From TrEMBL:
Record organism: Lentinula raphanica
Single GO term (MF): flavin adenine dinucleotide binding
SUPFAM superfamilies noted in UniProt: FAD-linked reductases, C-terminal domain, FAD/NAD(P)-binding domain
UniProt-annotated catalytic positions: 565, 608
Name of the protein in its database record: Alcohol oxidase
Domain Glucose-methanol-choline oxidoreductase N-terminal: 122-145, 315-329
Length: 635
């Protein structure tokens, strides 16, 4: 179980050759080019690296400003109309395949029984939004408010983010029809209705969906009918970023790119990898100006030119790598590999936070329909394939959408919570290694004490995580949302095409393991409740002989996997207290080099990340536009 989502890669017997139409229609490739020579001859206002969630959001919004030219450099290509990406039922198939996935690996992880774990990252127009699991969620108010607590930073809080969390999305109207409670209704005040990404409720629910909700409900988890309103705690039926009319994935490429594909001031260079930001000394001493980006295309090196800003949106793993390759980072790390340090910012690549989950998997009694049927029953797979091809509905259009975000007091007694807080106190004593870390731990400890902010999540999969042939399953994935562990990513060499060294730090703090343990035990309890328990044949994971806490902890260390939510490696905070970028997302020591992706999140959020990363791009675009308007008025 190298990565959580690798598990679903074994789901289908084979890819069913759907004929999906191209996402953008006739203009799908208008802005796309592979002509590196021509691209490097243009002097753009903005050059952006990476066409994922953050990159396409910022690029397309900047391209809406009249007279502004925008060029993006993307290492992958546009998989337009490719069923591996577009068909929700094929989720997981792209993972580990170099056509779509960078397939990074960590160094051996001591907290995870010494395993080397894979870290999937989308390599394509759309980035990781092209391979993700399509859960469309956001975090709680307090989690965004924490961002601004490290210092003044231009409204990076819930109130400042909310308009930009609405901008990316067009949510489909309410539908009704679930037996337990109507989980398909959200309060419209908090939703967006005019953005490029489509989000909708499922069109297909498995036989275990409602029984699971009922069992979770009777275990005491309240239903959250409005999880986008600032409080995520409780049991929800999340929306998915699926375009319901066609049943296809709605992601950064099909949404943000396609809606801007025919704009003449917007160019996307694909199949090209950025290797360095070109910096020159500014007139003010000690400052640098970014003038462009060096990149490799077909083994040749070129430079893209930027008149205004260079914006890195290469994601949590590769944006810090690019900073280090450009001479920005911890000077001793740079010198060690032979890179000349220009700006000493020791926190580049540090502070990585992620969500780590462990599975409980149950084999179901015969005749219970789950996504496994597409893997094990050729008749059903063929039927569903026809339904999907004709109407874009049915099992192939479905996702796993039953999530619960759990503050500890929802499922643990005071004594257990007390022992978790004690465990956290040990981390604070041992590992408050910097002012920044200390400040983060203060916030996390307040959340533990107050009990409103969810500390763990249970994701229900209507499928096996590690399935055997011919059987159907339910899987409950239990994870920690606000870990105490921190990881890092750094260059291991000055060769820009070499992979960075990733030490994810997963489960290094005992606190993290104990949170997973308590959540897993609670998931095991839910599975003993009606009406779910009558559908279960037997427990598969953890193996039934694993019972006591010590054995469960070993199981967790040997089987836990990341939800692929790394963030925080280029934190937004004041310089000198852990920050790499300021409140305008400008890298300290530069006048115009910005970062716009998941790496700027200073303090991890306990949710699935994509809607927030789009929101960061939307907010940065608004800030840049405001600054331009002010400058225009002044002049
Ligand atoms: C398997 C998986 C499942 C997930 N499930 C969910 C989910 O269900 N719900 C959810 O909300 N989130 C989910 N996520 C997380 C979410 O998709 C990511 O957090 C989000 O896409 C991050 O956005 P980003 O802009 O930081 O990076 P990305 O979207 O990864 O984009 C980075 C882009 O930069 C490009 N790039 C990198 N380096 C270079 C370079 N040197 N030169 C040129 N281009 C470069 C990459 O090819 C990529 O296109 C999942 C992620 C994964 C991997
Ligand atoms: C990877 O994806 C490509 C394109 O869909 C496909 O042709 C190839 O068979 C896949 N490789 C593996 C190992 O699955
Ligand atoms: C969806 O349902 C909720 C709860 O009944 C209601 O408040 C809201 O107005 C509905 N939203 C839309 C867009 O109709
Ligand atoms: C469980 O569902 C019932 C029926 O909808 C509801 O009244 C009750 O509040 C729910 N229980 C919890 C803990 O939310
Ligand atoms: C395609 O692009 C052309 C030229 O930019 C534009 O006139 C036309 O409206 C676009 N068509 C669609 C369907 O977007
Ligand atoms: C690039 O160079 C490498 C090594 O020199 C070679 O193996 C590869 O075929 C070249 N690729 C292209 C696209 O020219
Ligand atoms: C910089 O890196 C060196 C070498 O890895 C390390 O010893 C040092 O602690 C780092 N400096 C800071 C401030 O993190
Ligand atoms: C496949 O599903 C069909 C329809 O539900 C059922 O009749 C058939 O028995 C199943 N086949 C197998 C091998 O389970
Ligand atoms: C598609 O939907 C139509 C209308 O609901 C229905 O008549 C038809 O049978 C569906 N197609 C398939 C293959 O199920
Ligand atoms: C648990 O602690 C809370 C707050 O400290 C208190 O209100 C509650 O009564 C305690 N519950 C039990 C069962 O001790
Ligand atoms: C799965 O079921 C089919 C049809 O019932 C049978 O032919 C096959 O041997 C089974 N495979 C395994 C691995 O049990
Ligand atoms: C402190 O951090 C180190 C390095 O990540 C880790 O090994 C150790 O377990 C942590 N201490 C606690 C109490 O979690």
């Amino acid at each position: 179980m190298a990565s959580l989502y690798h598990l679903s890669a074994v789901l289908l017997l084979s890819i069913i050759p759907f004929t999906t139409s191209t996402a953008c229609g006739i203009n799908s490739t208008t802005a796309i080019t592979t002509d590196a020579q021509a691209f490097s001859a243009i002097e753009f206002d903005y050059v952006i690296v990476g066409a994922g969630a953050g990159g396409l959001a910022i690029a397309t919004r900047l391209a809406e400003i009249e007279g502004t030219t925008v060029g993006i450099i993307e290492a992958g290509v546009f998989h337009d109309g490719d069923p591996v990406i577009d068909v929700p039922g094929n989720v997981g198939q792209a993972l580990g395949n170099s056509t779509y996935d960078w397939s990074f690996e960590t160094i051996p992880q001591p907290g995870a029984a010494g395993r080397i774990l894979t870290l999937p990252r989308g390599k394509m127009l759309g980035g990781s939004t092209g391979i993700n699991n399509m859960a469309w969620t956001r975090a709680s108010r307090a989690e965004y408010d924490a961002w601004e607590s490290f210092g003044p930073n231009n409204g990076w809080n819930w109130d400042g983010m909310l308009p930009h969390l609405k901008q990316p999305v067009d949510v489909a109207p309410n539908r009704t029809g679930l037996p337990l409670v109507d989980f398909e209704m959200y309060e419209p005040t908090f939703e967006g209705f005019s953005g490029p990404v489509s989000a909708s409720f499922n069109a297909w629910y498995s036989d275990v969906f409602s029984p699971y909700l009922a069992a979770a409900n009777s275990s005491g988890i309240p239903s959250n009918l409005d999880p986008d309103a600032g409080t995520t705690a409780g049991l929800m039926n999340s929306r998915s970023n699926v375009e319901r009319d066609t049943g296809t994935r709605s992601y950064a490429a099909s949404a943000y790119y396609c809606s801007h594909a025919s704009q003449p001031n917007f160019r996307v260079l694909v199949n090209s990898q950025a290797i360095r930001v070109v910096l020159k000394k500014a007139t003010l001493p000690g400052l640098y100006v970014a003038t462009g980006v060096e990149f490799v295309s077909n083994n040749n090196t070129y430079t893209a030119m930027a008149k205004k800003d260079v914006i890195l949106s290469a994601g949590t793993i590769q944006s810090p790598q690019l900073l280090e390759l450009s001479g920005i980072g911890n000077s001793s790390i740079l010198k060690r590999v032979g890179i000349e340090p220009l700006i000493d910012l020791p926190e580049v690549g540090e502070n990585m936070q992620d969500h780590v989950f462990a599975p409980a998997q149950y084999q179901l009694k015969p005749g219970i329909l789950t996504f496994d049927a597409l893997r094990i029953n050729a008749t059903i797979a063929a039927e569903q394939s026809a339904i999907y091809a004709q109407n874009g509905t049915g099992m192939f259009s479905g996702t796993d959408s039953a999530l619960s975000f759990l503050p500890l007091d929802l499922f643990l007694d005071n004594q257990t919570i007390g022992s978790l807080i004690d465990s956290f106190d040990t981390v604070v004593t041992e590992n408050s290694t910097s002012v920044f870390r200390k400040a983060q731990y203060e916030i996390q400890k307040d959340w533990l004490r107050q009990g409103h902010v969810p500390q763990s999540e249970i994701i229900m999969w209507s499928r096996g995580a590690a399935p055997l042939a011919n059987e159907s399953y339910i899987t409950l994935l239990s994870g920690v949302l606000h870990p105490a562990s921190r990881g890092s990513v750094h260059v291991g060499s000055k060769d820009p095409l070499e992979r960075p060294v990733i030490n994810a730090g997963w489960l290094e703090a005992d606190f993290d393991v104990l949170v997973v343990l308590q959540t897993l035990k609670f998931a095991l309890e839910i599975a003993t409740l009606e009406p779910l328990v009558s559908m279960i044949d037997s427990r598969v994971l953890p193996p039934p002989d694993i019972q006591d806490d010590q054995a469960l902890i070993e199981f967790i260390r040997e089987n836990a996997a990341s939800a692929s939510h790394p963030m925080g490696t280029i934190a937004m905070a004041p310089r000198g207290s852990g920050g790499v970028v300021d409140g305008n997302l400008i890298v300290y020591g530069t006048t115009n080099l910005r970062v716009c992706d998941a790496s700027i999140i200073p303090n991890g959020i306990g949710t699935h990340l994509q809607s927030t990363i789009y929101g960061i791009g939307e907010k940065l675009a608004a800030m840049i536009q405001d600054a331009q308007n002010t400058a225009d008025c002044d002049s």
